[in-house]
Amino acid sequence: MIELLTIPYSPWSEKARWALDHHGVRYQEVEYQPMLGEPALRKRLGKWRGKISVPLLVKADGTIEDSFAIAQYAEQIGSSPTPLFPEDAIEKIVGWNEQSEIAMRAGRAMVTVRTMQDPQARAEAMPPLPAPLSGLLKRPLTSFGAAYLRRKYKYSSSLESHTEALAQVLANVRAVLSDGRAYVLGKNFSYADICVATSLQCVRPVTDEFIKLRPATRKAWSDEALASQFDDLLGWRDQLYESQRLS
What we know:
Layout: E1 2-6, H1 11-22, E2 27-31, H2 38-45, E3 56-59, E4 62-65, H3 67-77, H4 90-117, H5 119-125, H6 131-153, H7 159-177, H8 191-199, H9 215-220, H10 224-229, H11 231-244
Parallel strand pairs: 1-2
Antiparallel strand pairs: 1-3, 3-4
Helix pairs in contact: 1-3, 1-8, 4-5, 4-6, 4-7, 4-8, 8-11
């Protein structure tokens, strides 16, 4: 069986999972620990330089990186009669995927800053450690982890620019859905909807039925100002999860 390496709470991982599940593709999900798991993953891939990230689909004949590529692979081998990439809408779907990438990168920066500001969220973000080491390593590991993320993703610790970037994408989504359509492209569910829905995870997370989060982590992933401003989109997202997401 193929393996899907994920960070369970990551919207990028959710984009890949949703596409695979939609098409009934069987896989084993393997949790990846950022930073600590990188050396082992590099060894497994034989890739000692350059960027590596998850989700990562591992097959007998190779690997597939990036949510979009994994979703396209699911489209090729899956069994669902409902395509996520209808041929007449590929260009639009690519555009919405790019919009979701902007939103998610901004959201990731915002979540990381809020996590570092909350001691309980920092504690919840810690990987499991043996009891004797937990107390000794908690503070240096969380500080190193924040520096690692800033260096890897090159984002500012100022929330304002990230908030503006995320809000602009959401305003674009609202404009498209303002005519009352059920789906981003019109009548049919597509990967564009997955892109938009998962981007809203950084505004207010979906319920634990779909993605489990501990209390302080859930708070760090929530932006109450944006959630109030885009409450209509959150309602759309929640309805989409209920109707289209396999739990």
